[in-house]
Design goal:
It is a single chain. This protein has 3 domains: 3-134, Rossmann fold, CATH 3.40.50.300; 142-201, Orthogonal Bundle (Helicase, Ruva Protein, domain 3), CATH 1.10.8; 210-331, Zinc Finger, Delta Prime, domain 3 (Up-down Bundle), CATH 1.20.272.10. The chain is built from 17 helices and 7 strands. The protein has helices spanning 3-11, 26-40, 43-49, 60-67, 94-98, 120-128, 142-152, 159-169, 173-185, 195-201, 210-219, 222-234, 241-260, 266-273, 280-287, 292-309, 319-331, and strands at 18-23, 50-54, 77-82, 104-110, 130-134, 156-157, 192-193. The strands form 2 sheets. It has a 5-stranded parallel sheet, with helices on both faces. A two-stranded parallel ribbon has the order 6-7. The radius of gyration is 25 Å and the shape is elongated. It starts with a helix and ends with a helix. The mean pLDDT is 90.
Length: 332
């Protein structure tokens, strides 16, 4: 079951006695648990019928005792078990999972590690519970997530600002939504977010950022490229070398794919390299600045630089020297 399906089910007052929220991406787990806390019971029912417990603080017997209690002046009790992965005797809940109370809604969050599906816990709960698995969001889906989140708050964002945020914040949706929430606090409803707002309120430099650095390399602009790596060297925390190498490697891999697939229609090509069609012409323009053999050489060089940065196959090299080597490889 997906997050949206579960929330729709709860809004329709369709409650399974047990709901398990689990997976690699904690954002949707936390959002579903928050919805349960705020909306399953009426405010007047919560004082006597809603409790939140944590796996590290409760044992199976005490949890089952809570679940088998009768509601007071309400149709249901709501028990939210958070961080179930920390519950030492969780397998002892098997009898309750097989025969749960129909007057209790038990919502369980299990995150930070995968469920061992060989355990009694999983085998029993998977037979009775509603299961919502929150999977990691791929980078290719982040732009859509950013737009959807901002649209729900009555904001929009231009393509360049979205790419800039995506590049720097990454795929952790909790971090991403926290940064977006801080950003929109400073802007009136209905605003379109541009790179200027991102620079001002999230603290990402409009001029000196990886997104712009990649574009500079694609244009083969040596003067600007060397000025930017000087800035990166002076601000390593905001611009860590592993992130730079990863982004540049991904970029040149995309350019190589564009170079090798000139006959594919734009829609198919954008999908093949995993970018918004809005940016495809930028990739096609940059690809024309390089020969196919050069792109292969650049891609291999970046891999070698990554190994050097980790001290593999060579003595650990200074980050500044590696950045210079990267730029020289691209420009030559």
């Amino acid at each position: 079951m997906k997050y949206a399906d579960l929330i729709k089910k709860w809004k329709n007052k369709d409650f399974n006695p047990i709901t398990l929220l689990h997976g690699d991406e904690e954002f949707y787990i936390d959002q579903a648990a928050k919805y349960a806390e705020n909306h399953i019971l009426e405010e007047s029912e919560k004082a006597f019928n809603q409790i939140t417990v944590y796996g590290k603080d409760i044992n199976a017997k005490d949890l089952m005792d809570q679940c088998y209690q009768y509601p007071m002046m309400a149709a249901f009790r709501l028990i939210i078990l958070k961080e179930a992965q920390s519950m030492r005797d969780i397998d002892k809940l098997e009898p309750y999972f097989l025969k749960p109370s129909e007057q209790t809604i038990l919502v369980i969050t299990h995150k930070h590690k995968k469920i061992d599906k060989r355990k009694k816990f999983w085998k029993a709960i998977s037979k009775k519970a509603d299961l919502m698995e929150s999977k990691k969001v791929y980078e290719s889906a982040l732009s859509s997530f950013i737009s959807s989140f901002l649209k729900s708050e009555n904001y929009s964002i231009d393509h360049h600002a979205s790419e800039l945020i995506k590049t720097y914040i990454g795929t952790n949706l909790t971090n991403l939504t926290n940064e977006l929430s801080k950003l929109i606090l400073n802007l009136p409803k209905g605003s379109q977010i541009t790179t200027a707002e991102v620079e001002k309120y999230i603290g990402i430099s409009k001029e000196y950022n990886i997104f712009e650095f990649i574009n500079v390399l694609g244009r083969r602009d040596s003067k600007t490229a060397f000025r930017m790596i000087k800035y990166f060297g002076e601000n390593p925390k905001q611009n860590p070398l592993p992130m730079i190498l990863f982004r540049v490697s991904d970029y040149f891999q995309k350019l190589l794919i564009v170079k090798q697939n000139t006959g594919i229609p734009d829609g198919g090509l954008a999908s093949k390299i995993g970018v918004n069609p809005y940016f495809l012409n930028d990739y096609k323009s940059s690809a024309r600045n390089f020969k196919g053999d050069s792109l292969i050489h650049i891609y291999k060089t970046i891999k070698e630089l990554d190994l050097k940065s980790k001290g593999i196959s060579a003595r650990r090299v200074n980050d500044d020297a590696l950045l210079k080597e990267l730029v020289i490889s691209v420009l030559n």
